[in-house]
Amino acid sequence: QLQLVEPGGGLVQPGGSLRLSCAASGFRLEYYAIGWYRQAPGQQREWVASVDTSGLIRDYVDSVKGRFSISRDNSKKTVYLQMNSLKPEDAAVYYCNTRPASDSWGQGTQVTVSS
To answer: Given a cut of 70, is residue 22 above it in pLDDT?
Structure first.
């Protein structure tokens, strides 16, 4: 089951940056494409970014292209989401999961973007 080992979320001002980390527990993360997802209050969970097993193929939802960057370090069994130029509309609970997503979701980490 994927678990967020280090909650990298928090409160940041618009235009600021945060880095989220996601490390696997109980399975070999390096064998799976991994995605980051988010859910804002009152909205459905949406896919944000994903990376293939090699780390070479990355994809993003249009709203974060050019601002977010997903990467992975298979030696550390960790996937990262670097979020720059954050906007208030990026505020949400962020989750990592396989891509496509499994039914197993962690608790997520809260990202708040506010001045």
So the answer is: yes
